[in-house]
Design brief:
The chain is mainly beta and 131 residues long. It is built from 1 helix and 8 strands, in the order ββββββαββ.
Length: 131
């Protein structure tokens, strides 16, 4: 929960493991619990970057006490996570804060990816994993 007098904190994110040979865009999304990680329109903030290097540094300003970050290498520029032939498994590169991973149960839960402003060590490191 945020207060009216909350001061925005800068959150630095280092993204590694980007495959610059792939096309599209890198989407970096900051979420509260609502909508994470599937409903991209529910993200509090979204940044779009070119995948022209293996690593990328981004910054968010937020007053959210708890949040999670999702990184998507959106190769088809659809602004959604494309799936493979099964319709279940992502076919694009993904990364989540706190080292959260996709499992056979589906995408990670907010509690597994959440970060707290009070416990933040900067920068946050997120690796993009490709199928």
């Amino acid at each position: 929960m945020t207060t009216k007098n909350a001061i925005a904190t800068t959150v630095q994110v280092e993204i590694n493991g980007i495959d610059p040979k792939r096309t599209g865009q890198i989407m970096v999304m900051l979420f509260e619990d609502n909508g994470f990680p599937v409903k991209h329109k529910s993200a509090l903030q979204t940044q779009f970057h070119s995948p022209n290097a293996e690593s990328l540094s981004v910054e968010f300003k937020t007053t959210q006490a708890e949040f999670a970050i999702k990184v998507l290498h959106d190769e088809d520029n659809s602004q959604t996570t494309s799936k493979n032939w099964t319709g279940i498994i992502p076919s694009e590169g993904l990364g989540f804060s706190n080292g959260a991973k996709i499992s056979w149960r589906g995408p990670p839960k907010f509690k597994d990816a959440k970060l707290s402003l009070t416990d933040l060590s900067s920068p946050i490191s997120i690796s993009v994993n490709y199928p």
